[in-house]
Design a protein that fits this description.
The chain has 555 residues and is mostly helical. Helices cover 64% and strands 4% of the residues. Helix 23 links the parallel strand 1 and strand 2. Helix 3 runs parallel beside helix 8, helix 7 crosses helix 18 and helix 10 packs parallel to helix 12.
Length: 555
């Protein structure tokens, strides 16, 4: 992003709000408009462009900070950097319960000679959420029509665009599976609607299958949502093309596509790496979900954790309530509308289960529900139209819908200064942390280093490559049934890659999972302590971060 443009906005934050609110007004005006059939294509294109513009108009300040907004961002950048030298899943890098696909996506800038850093990571994340919203539009258009789709995506757009909640705007592992499951939902809707040619429906079924299979390897937590959409696709094919040759073809194509990405990753990870590693992805994820967390996930988590999310969820529940009343009063609603509504409710349940099952109150888990809740609210809005309310209130029903969602979202967004907008100027001049500057004195961009602790942002700040698959070493410092094997694997990888620099980032000010020097520094791992003592020289300590350099490195 141009430094001059950023500085212009930073000099007077009111300029940001003028542009962002103007973009929002244009988007809402187009959402409220009733397009003529003769201008449908141009109107649709203009509306979709306005959707992307309003999201980026509000979100771009999030891209600027040159530091990690969340500790997970450092892990993601580190994994993407490692892919540039070792792309084998689970051998070169391991994203734990998130699977390898997110890291591959974040490594794409390297193909074009661009840097992999916090900016590129958040830019890709914003593109994923924008694409998910656009996919929701097409899903609603193919299930209902363009008019309903315009209104139906408004709740999701308002949340994605206007929120400045750190857990919603930093790159998180939910972004990719949210996009993949929504794209699969759109593909299933296309197949169910029977639009386009037979070839187009085959392509849509294949795309839906690929996205669903991929979503499991983007984040295991998305499995309930993906499984429900998979079942919905199969049921839609069966109900709409029962007994036809096309039904068999679509089912076969979807099934084969569903298995394609998992098969490639499992075989690749097993042959090029360790056969047990791909299996450990599933067993580790299940153990994580079954172990329970230290935070309850109840009503307060949904309504009291993030204000912008509550401003999205409460109007959505109101819309569901009004649609339910229409369903009770007018009983002659078509079966197809009822089936879609029932599916939308199940989709919300699946999303809720994905959020609830780990029993950990991480706000970014709520992102799993943004598309399902929006789809469900739109389905109940459609019930009011099926109940003939729109014929009498063609103007007021859409305007009420827009008002009910826009006023709370905009009120929350403007109630306090956007934390990213108010600091644009300082973010553009943010220096690297002193610890990163110290590491950079001994390791150049592209060099292999190892960081002991939970400080993967050091890889991101220096552009260095992690020596082992682990971006953090918390699992190696806590007693557990697999501690011996994990430590043995770590030492094997460390000795094989021979990092130029070894960094012990355990200190009282570090991330809470690795901040106890007495029990978690590398000296508490005898084999590692011996290896570092024999092969490395201590150089300096900065803010508690200790830096060692290999004796044969020449540094």
């Amino acid at each position: 992003m141009s430094q001059a443009i950023v500085s212009w906005f930073g000099a007077a934050p009111v300029r940001f709000y003028l542009v962002a609110v103007s973009a929002l007004f244009c988007f809402l005006t187009l959402a409220a408009s009733h397009r003529e059939p003769t201008a449908a294509y141009r109107s649709q294109l203009l509306f979709l462009i306005s959707t992307a513009v309003v999201i980026f108009a509000w979100r771009w300040p999030v891209l600027i900070p040159s530091y990690a907004l969340n500790v997970d961002e450092g892990m993601w950048v580190a994994g993407a950097l490692k892919i540039t030298v070792d792309p084998v899943p689970w051998r070169g890098f391991d994203a734990a319960t998130s699977g390898p696909l997110g890291s591959y996506l974040l490594a794409l800038p390297a193909l074009f000679g661009c840097s992999i850093d916090f900016f590129s990571t958040r830019l890709i994340g914003t593109c994923l959420m924008t694409s998910a919203v656009l996919a929701l539009y097409f899903a609603l258009e193919w299930v209902y029509d363009a008019r309903l789709a315009q209104l139906g995506i408004v709740p999701a757009v308002l949340l994605v665009a206007l929120t400045d909640e750190v857990d919603f705007v930093h790159f998180s592992s939910e972004y990719l599976p949210v996009f993949l499951t929504t794209a699969a939902l759109a593909g299933a809707a296309f197949v169910a609607a029977g639009v386009g040619s037979a070839r187009a429906r085959v392509i849509a079924a294949a795309a839906a299958g690929i996205c669903l299979g991929s979503s499991v390897f983007a984040k295991l937590q998305a499995t309930p949502i993906a499984a429900l959409i998979c079942c919905g696709l199969a049921v839609a094919i069966f109900l709409t093309r029962r007994g036809t040759k096309e039904a068999a073809v679509l089912l076969a194509i979807a099934a084969l596509s569903l298995c394609a990405v998992p098969a490639v990753l499992m075989v690749w990870g097993s042959v090029a790496g360790n056969p047990a590693d791909p299996i450990s992805y599933f067993t580790g994820g299940l153990e994580y979900a079954a172990s329970g967390g230290d935070a309850s996930v109840g009503t307060r988590f949904f309504f009291g954790t993030v204000k912008s999310y509550a401003a999205f969820l409460i109007p959505a529940l109101m819309a569901v309530g009004v649609g339910a009343l229409a369903l009770v009063r007018w009983r002659s609603i078509p079966r197809r509308a009822l089936l879609v509504t029932a599916f939308s409710l199940l989709l919300v349940v699946a999303a809720w289960y994905s959020i609830y099952k780990p029993h950990r109150g991480f706000p970014h888990y709520l992102l799993f529900s943004v598309i399902p809740v929006s789809f469900c609210a739109a389905a109940f809005l459609a019930l009011t139209r099926e109940a003939a309310l729109w014929q009498r209130e063609r103007f007021w029903v859409p305007m009420t819908w827009l008002t009910v969602f826009t006023v709370p979202a905009l009120s929350v967004a403007l109630a306090a200064p956007n934390r990213f907008v108010s600091s644009i100027a300082s973010h553009t001049m943010q220096p690297r942390p002193p610890e990163a500057e110290a590491v950079a004195r001994y390791a150049r961009r592209g060099d292999v280093i190892a960081v002991w602790g939970w400080a993967a942002e050091l890889y991101a700040h220096t552009g260095t490559i992690m020596a082992t698959r682990a971006a953090d070493t918390a699992g190696l410092a806590v007693a557990g049934p697999n501690l011996a094997s994990l430590r043995e694997r770590y030492m094997s990888e460390l000795q094989a890659d021979k990092p130029k620099v070894f960094v012990d980032a355990v200190h009282p000010g570090a991330f809470f999972r690795m901040n106890d020097p007495a029990t978690q520094r590398h000296e508490n791992f005898p084999a590692l302590a011996d290896y570092i003592r024999e092969n490395y020289t201590f150089k300096e300590e900065v803010n508690g971060v200790r830096i060692y350099v290999a004796r044969n490195s020449g540094a």
